[in-house]
Design goal:
By secondary structure, this protein is an alpha/beta fold. It has 17 helices and 15 strands. It has an eight-stranded mixed sheet. A seven-stranded parallel sheet has the order 3-2-1-4-5-6-15, sandwiched between helices. Helix 1 packs across helix 4 and helix 2 runs parallel beside helix 15. The longest helix is centred in the middle third of the chain and has 24 residues. It is globular, with a radius of gyration of 22 Å. It binds nicotinamide-adenine-dinucleotide. Nicotinamide-adenine-dinucleotide (NAD) binds next to helix 7, helix 8, helix 9 and helix 14.
């Protein structure tokens, strides 16, 4: 990690985050009593943030032997990495801004601990275990995956018949993607853009590319700031939903010349390309909040630019041959985790409650599972929602016996 001296600040920030993670705290209490992960080696590749520290502490309380590396070179919080090592005794390999070689070397260090469970955010560790580090794969009994992009990659491995062990797709839990991807990414993406640029959002044309869980959140929060939001989609149903939610829907070709701020949230490759940069107005800002920085064709932007310079910490100015400037934020990496602090802990509480319970589920059930990608069991999802509501002091009704009977019956009418 960068500097052990940062640990005290990291501890304070972790404690602050954990104040909004009551569900994870309950799980940690139970784990400490029951020790369901006793002696299990878990190799985690997650964004090294305050919330992840809460998860690491929970898994360690359950008896797991943890090793952690970053799932993105820019998302590490160095004080958290220091606190994990110095205060909580968790092996952590991550430095904010690490280069590509260091990033992969850190992942190798986690694999060197010979994990029995992998915990990925983007399937990078699984990818290595299925290629150059296949030597370490036989000892893995199962894994979990945090994000949409990772789940897509794992499902394609399953379909090709190459997946070597079962995975629980944490992203597919309702208590994960409905809240983390939508409200977490929505708020923190705007936060990242604002921290990076200090630009006013009100009155700007904000172009949101992709109207999935993340895109919906970004569009909703940009609208809340007073932006004129344009949504781009390839799925007609989602495009229709965006239109009915009150957003203008168009193509990238139509949006490129009018947008002030572009945010990609598709999980796809090159959704903003050379021809789009060439059409953008002077001062256009381009950011990505999808998992990988391939959503924006950065080499095409570099090819079009006659010069480039760093004008603020996360803002790079590309000057095109006719003098127009296009600004790329955070090298096209997830803006919310690069320029801001990622999702607020209140939503990560549910995402990481899913991770902790999925790890426990995997330890109990791995031998019975096939080499497939599994959803989080419904009872886990429902229990997390119940605990979260309880922690918010919200009670809900239960069905009466008459209602249960009515819903099960096909013969009762008006
Ligand atoms: N920034 C974060 O902290 C964070 C959090 C969660 C997920 N993610 C990542 O964000 C990405 C999106 O996740 P999601 O859960 O919203 O996925 P999703 O599948 O719900 O939505 C993606 C949407 O993008 C659309 N799309 C695909 N290609 C497109 C194109 N060329 N033009 C326009 N639209 C296109 C799809 O039709 C879909 O509606 C993934 O990479 C995911 O891993 C990031």
């Amino acid at each position: 990690m960068k500097d052990l001296g940062l640990a005290p600040t990291g501890v304070l920030r972790i404690e602050w985050a954990e104040k909004e993670m009551p569900v994870l705290a309950l799980i940690r209490e139970r784990f400490a009593k029951e020790r369901p992960l006793e002696g299990v080696r878990i190799g985690a590749c997650l964004h090294v943030t305050t919330e992840t520290a809460g998860l690491m502490r929970t898994l360690a309380a359950g008896g797991a032997e943890m090793a952690l590396c970053a799932s993105n070179p820019l998302s590490t919080q160095d004080d958290v990495a220091a606190a994990l090592v110095a205060e909580y005794g968790i092996s952590t390999f991550a430095i904010k801004g690490e280069d590509r070689d260091t990033y992969y070397r850190h992942m190798q260090s986690v694999i060197d601990t010979l994990p029995q469970i992998t915990m990925d955010d983007g399937a990078d560790v699984v990818g290595l275990l299925h290629s150059e580090r296949s030597d370490a794969a036989p000892g893995v009994i199962g894994g979990t995956e945090e994000t949409t992009t990772g789940v897509i990659r794992l499902k394609s491995m399953e379909q090709e018949g190459v997946l070597r062990y079962p995975i629980v797709a944490v992203n597919e839990a309702m208590t994960k993607h409905m809240f983390d991807n939508r409200y977490g990414t929505g708020q923190s993406t705007l936060d990242g853009i604002i921290r990076a640029t200090n630009r006013l959002i009100a009155s700007k044309i904000v172009v949101v590319v992709g109207y999935g869980w993340c895109g919906r959140g970004v569009a909703m929060r940009a609208k809340g700031h007073g932006a004129d939001v344009v949504v781009l989609e390839v799925d007609p149903l989602r495009a229709l939903e965006a239109a009915m939610d009150g957003f203008r829907v168009m193509t990238m070709e139509q949006a490129a010349p009018i947008g002030d701020i572009f945010v990609t949230a598709t999980g796809n490759i090159h959704v903003i390309r050379g021809e789009h940069f060439a059409a953008m107005k002077d001062g256009a800002i381009v950011a990505n909040t999808g998992h990988f920085n391939v959503e924006i064709d950065i080499p095409a932007l570099e090819g079009l630019a006659s010069s480039r310079r760093q004008v603020r910490e996360y803002v790079e100015e590309f000057t095109l041959s006719d003098g127009r400037n296009v600004y790329l934020l955070a090298e096209g990496r997830l803006i919310n985790l690069s320029a801001a602090e990622g999702h607020p802990s209140a939503v990560m509480d549910m995402s990481f409650a899913n991770q902790a319970l999925a790890a426990e589920y995997m330890v109990k059930n791995a031998t019975k599972l096939e080499k497939r990608v599994y959803d989080v069991p419904d009872d886990i999802d429902t229990e997390i929602a119940r605990l979260k509501l309880a922690s918010m002091g919200a009670d809900i009704d239960t069905l009466t016996a008459e209602q249960v009977e009515y819903l099960a019956s096909w013969s009762m009418g008006t």
